[in-house]
Specification:
The complex is a heterotrimer of chains A (295), B (251) and C (348). Chain A contains twelve helices and two strands. Chain A is mainly alpha-helical and 295 residues long. In chain B, strands 6-7-8-3-9-10 form a six-stranded mixed beta sheet, sandwiched between helices. Classes of the chains: A mainly alpha (295), B alpha/beta (251), C mainly alpha (348).
């Protein structure tokens, strides 16, 4: 029973944070058709903001979160402008592959800048909220995890509402479904692209603030989250928000189960094995269209 | 002749490396409905795409209500008062019918008047009312076409570009669609691309024939039905009827 | 494009053979052990990157698992050398075959997957291979510490002689793989690859068997990567799972793209640039990632054909200009023939 509870709790916490990081990637892919490899860097950047503001200056968590969002929003816009925007009207290229490469290049650059600026050592970062609560028979959850999950869920729900209920949210969905038709309606897609990428990067930045307490801030702190986000996005179905969220919690569940029942070192290999199986048998994932995955 | 609301001169356009429209010129007068007919693949759709910004303009000019729009991006051209109702509908599949219609009113000034526009579209296409909350991918072909046209009507435009509205539709729906187009033609300027000649004479002020990327003939419906070459190629049974009525308009 | 000649012009053939001759002479005039070592490593990487380019550039398959194939080739060769008495060359071929086999296996699940998905599948596969090796307690692969020391190939030669032997061996393999790729490119098999890459449906309709083509190209690329791994293990005398690291992956892919994706000499140029950068930054090794990132970005945006591709384009433009050929701009030709002259370059 305690095991089951531990698994569920961990699954929800993990799933929420995966969702937060992956939802940005899905948004970017849906709207811009770009597989943004710099999202990991945004998590990393958020971690450094946390290290600086919370760690060194002792500022409260709420301010740090807002600051991290602002910083990674700006970085996201910058990334879009230098690695996606110039390629938008080129005809003879495989846009998805090329932007995969250019965003990857940006990630390399960011990692290097961080390395030069902050050095390779891992910096510890205090949690946004201290302390933990015992919910049952030795199963404790740190408040940090609860807050992290709550923030993540709030953001995901908020995003969902925005997309469904607002004029620009609807426009974003329209652009994701049919770019040409949306342009015929006068939707300013060119201006929206950097903004969408900025906001999505901002989400990753916020995730970074929370993750840094557990995984430390360092120039390579974004590598694993990037991989995990990729896995979630593919499992969920490229471009599908709903799919991403299902996939995030599914992966959270798988990882929590493996971690509690076997050991944490096996959670990543199991994940890779799962994704290989998914890609072989159902590459479109949970909610994607078969036509997107197969030629 | 009324002032020209749309002028195309010497247009050379296509996609990427291919050129489809080769030095095409035409003029649409304000309030006029000009129908462009011609064989498939010769550039009718590319012409409309070039005007609305979806195809590449390599040379020539396009002027809409006095503003030069060639080379501008599609979203800018839409802002300049041009509505393009494209072939294939291009609806947003997972958005509901009503959301699709609302997208048609996206620009700020149209957005303010969206409720009224929505009402008007529902009046013109009652079939859409009960489907308003369904995702547009669940619609039948006829419903989809009506939604696409309805979406185009959510904005007041200087010029409406309509691409093959009757394509693939059952006759009953085609009738309905053309009733609406006739409504539009009465008060707006329309550039209509069509293959199906049966309804054209009801709406067309003039007809142009587009072949090999160029306009080769322009005239009224009567003039064109009297022209044997045109009737043979494009007009089918309508021409036979017109001739048996005593082709009084032979040159 | 001729499908039967490897070199488009005699000029190119002369240039190529001269380059090979010059390269072959290097160890005779340059005797720094350290320098030769760097060059040998570079040559081995050129084989790897050529095999990689065959897949991602020429066949258009987003394969990001090539490092695992390379590693498997190396491990296979190492294990053969350590545990069997088979002679060196056999071990090398064994490594190549191991690579070919593993690689061919990947051809099946990736057959109809779109780019991104193939990338993730092959990458995850590589990660799994990595983890399996790192967690191997059976002593076969040596786990995270890598294989125990392996004898070199040229144990009977002096250290100098051995270096030179490795150099010439590696050079020979590079030249052979380039010829192999060129042959593929110019053959009907190469046409099938291009057809499959650009328009799979059309290719299938024309009788190209996608599975067969895919398996063959994967196998060839895998063989080359395996040989590269085999050379690496025999030169370095050891191999470990760190050859599959993410940073190396990004370096090599960057090298290929910067050099010129899809061109034959692209990987050569790219690897050379990478090696240059490495030696220049030997005191600040981490900086090269940043620099490569910038170079990658600039190249992809401004010089999308890569350095070699750009050079080829430049040469074409120059020879066109020399021949006073209006070039293959059909547009311009059309316009000039029409009465009234060209319509001008407006719009667009």
């Amino acid at each position: 029973m305690t095991d089951l509870l531990a698994i569920l709790v961990n699954a929800v916490v993990l799933g929420s944070i995966y969702g937060l990081v992956a939802i940005g990637m899905t948004l970017i892919y849906g709207v811009l058709r770009v597989m943004d490899m710099s999202q990991g860097s945004m998590v990393m950047a958020g971690g450094f903001v946390a290290a600086g503001l919370m760690g060194q200056l002792g500022l409260p968590g709420a301010i740090t979160i807002v600051a991290a969002f602002a910083v990674t929003f700006a970085l996201g816009v910058l990334t879009q402008l230098i690695s996606v925007q110039p390629l938008l009207n080129r005809k003879s290229i495989d846009f998805e592959m090329v932007t995969f490469i250019t965003t990857f290049a940006v990630a390399l650059i960011f990692a290097n800048v961080a390395l030069e600026a902050f050095g390779p050592q891992q910096r510890s970062v205090p949690p946004v909220v201290e302390g933990s609560i015992e919910i049952y028979n030795g199963v404790t959850i740190p408040y940090q995890s609860l807050v992290m999950a709550a923030v993540a869920v709030t953001i995901m729900v908020g995003l969902g509402l925005y997309l469904r209920r607002s004029r620009y949210g609807m426009a974003i969905r329209a652009v994701a479904e049919n770019n040409s038709a949306a342009r015929l309606m006068g939707v300013p897609v060119r201006r929206m692209f950097p903004l969408v990428m900025g906001v999505a990067s901002g989400f990753a930045g916020i995730a970074g603030v929370f993750l840094a307490a557990q995984f430390f801030a360092s120039p390579t702190a974004g590598d694993l989250p990037l991989l995990q986000a990729l896995i979630v996005v593919i499992l969920g179905g490229l471009g599908s928000m709903r799919g991403t969220i299902y996939a995030a919690y599914t992966i959270g569940l798988i990882q929590a189960t493996v971690a509690v029942l076997i050991s944490t070192t096996w959670s990543l290999p199991v994940l890779y094995a799962v994704i290989v199986l998914v890609l072989i048998f159902r590459p479109q994932g949970l909610a994607g269209k078969a036509s997107e995955a197969r030629l | 002749m009324a002032e020209a609301v749309l002028e195309v001169e010497g247009l050379i356009a296509g996609y990427g490396e291919t050129t489809v429209v080769r030095e095409l010129s035409l003029e649409l007068a304000r309030g006029e409905t000009l129908v462009v007919i011609g064989p498939n693949g010769h550039g009718k759709t590319t012409l409309l795409n070039a005007i609305s910004g979806l195809a590449d303009v390599r040379a020539g000019t396009v002027t809409c209500a006095g503003e030069r729009i060639e080379g501008l991006r599609a979203e800018q051209i839409a802002g300049a008062g041009l509505v393009h109702i494209p072939q294939g509908d291009l609806l947003f599949p997972s958005l509901t019918v009503e959301e699709n219609l609302l997208m048609g009113a996206f620009p700020s000034d149209s957005w303010r008047r969206r409720d009224e526009a929505l009402r008007r579209v529902y009046e013109l296409f009652p079939a859409l009312v009960e489907r308003a909350g369904s995702e547009s991918r669940t619609l039948s072909g006829g419903e989809r076409r009506q939604a696409a046209i309805g979406r185009g009507l959510m904005r007041q435009a200087e010029v409406y570009l309509i691409d093959e509205p009757s394509l693939g539709l059952a006759p009953v729906i085609v009738d309905r669609v053309y009733e609406v187009i006739k409504e539009i033609s009465r008060t707006s300027s329309v550039l209509l691309v069509e293959e199906n000649f049966n309804h054209i004479d009801a709406v067309a002020d003039r007809v142009s024939v587009l072949e090999m990327g160029r306009i080769v003939r322009t005239g009224t419906v009567a003039e064109l039905t009297a022209d044997e070459k045109v009737t043979e190629s494009y007009l089918g049974t309508v021409a036979v009827e017109a001739e048996t009525e005593g082709g009084a308009n032979d040159d | 494009m001729s499908t039967d000649r490897i070199f488009k012009t005699t000029g190119a053939a002369v240039a190529a053979f001269s380059l090979i001759a010059v390269a072959a002479l290097v160890p005779l005039v340059y005797s720094s052990q350290y320098g030769l070592g760097v060059l040998i490593t570079m040559l081995i990487l050129m084989v790897l990157n050529t095999s990689w380019n065959l897949l991602i550039g020429i066949a258009g398959v987003w394969n990001f698992g090539q490092l695992a194939v390379y590693a498997i080739g190396g491990y296979a060769t190492g294990i053969i050398m350590l545990r069997t008495g088979l002679p060196g060359p056999v071990a090398l071929i064994g490594g190549g075959l191991a690579g070919a086999l593993i690689s061919a296996m990947l051809a099946f699940p990736t057959l109809r997957l779109r780019g991104m998905y193939t990338a993730l599948l092959t990458f995850s596969f590589a990660q799994i291979v990595n983890m399996v090796i790192v967690n191997d307690n059976t002593g076969l692969t040596g786990g995270p510490f890598g294989l125990p020391a392996v004898d070199g190939l040229f144990t009977s030669l002096s250290p100098d002689g051995s270096m030179r032997a490795y150099y010439w061996l590696a050079l020979a393999v590079v030249v052979a793989s380039l010829f192999a790729v060129a042959l593929i490119r110019r053959s009907s098999f190469g046409l099938s690859l291009t057809a499959l890459r650009d328009s799979a449906g059309f290719a299938a309709a024309r009788g190209v068997n996608p599975l067969q083509t895919q398996v063959i190209v994967y196998a060839i690329a895998g063989f080359l990567a395996g040989i590269a791994g085999a050379l690496a293990v025999s030169f370095d005398r050891s191999i470990g799972p760190e050859v599959m690291s993410l940073s190396l992956l990004s370096l090599y892919v960057t090298a290929i793209v910067v050099g010129g994706l899809g061109t034959i000499m692209g990987p050569i140029v790219g690897t050379a640039i990478l090696t240059l950068l490495d030696t220049a930054l030997v005191d600040e090794p981490a900086l090269k990632f940043g620099i490569l990132g910038v170079v990658l970005l600039l190249i992809v945006i401004f010089v999308p054909r890569g350095v070699f591709g750009a050079l080829v384009e430049l040469r074409d433009r120059v020879s066109d200009w020399i021949a006073e050929d209006p070039g293959d701009d059909d547009e311009a030709g059309d316009l000039e023939l029409r009465p009234g002259g060209p319509a001008g370059a407006g719009g667009g």
